Amino acid sequence: MNYKYLNITGNTAQELIDDSDINTKNIKLLNVCNVHASDSVNLDLYFYRSSKGSIYSSSPDDHANRENSTAVSESYYIVKNMTIPYGKTLQFEASDFLIDKTINYALYIKLNNSDSAVDIIIKN
Fold first, then answer.
1. pTM of the predicted structure, to 2 decimals
2. What values do phi and psi take at 44, rounded to 5?
3. What are phi and psi of 95, to 5 degrees?
């Protein structure tokens, strides 16, 4: 089994894993520990993917618009605005990561404050 250890700070969304690192399809366990000196932390944990999508109509004769493609992004939240009190750990298990195993997603985290701090352990 593989493990990944991360220290996350700040309130900018950060990629935790993608399929080139630890396979998001086989996460066994993910621990998020609030290590801030005194405050609770709120977090968003979500899968994200960006792909090339088509914006043409369903008509097969609409060839001109088939050249017009745009990036399509998808976010799927595991938790949104979940509070972890100071000194506590939130644990996710494999059954919390229900995603389509035929599509590659990256796993992201976003904390609520610029001075937020968490430690993360991922078991694959």
1. 0.78
2. -110, 135
3. -70, -15
Phi/psi at 80 (nearest 5 deg)?
-135, 125
- Encoding tokens for residue 70? 């745009």
Nearest to 121 by CA among 1, 2, 4: 4
What dihedral do alpha carbons 65, 67, 68, 70 form, nearest 10°?
140
Entry field: residues in the chain: 124
d(C-alpha 38, C-alpha 116), whole Å? 10
pLDDT greater than 50 at residue 111: yes
- How do residues 94-106 score in pLDDT, each as one tens digit? 988 887 777 788 8
**Tokens 């990944």 sit on residue:** 4
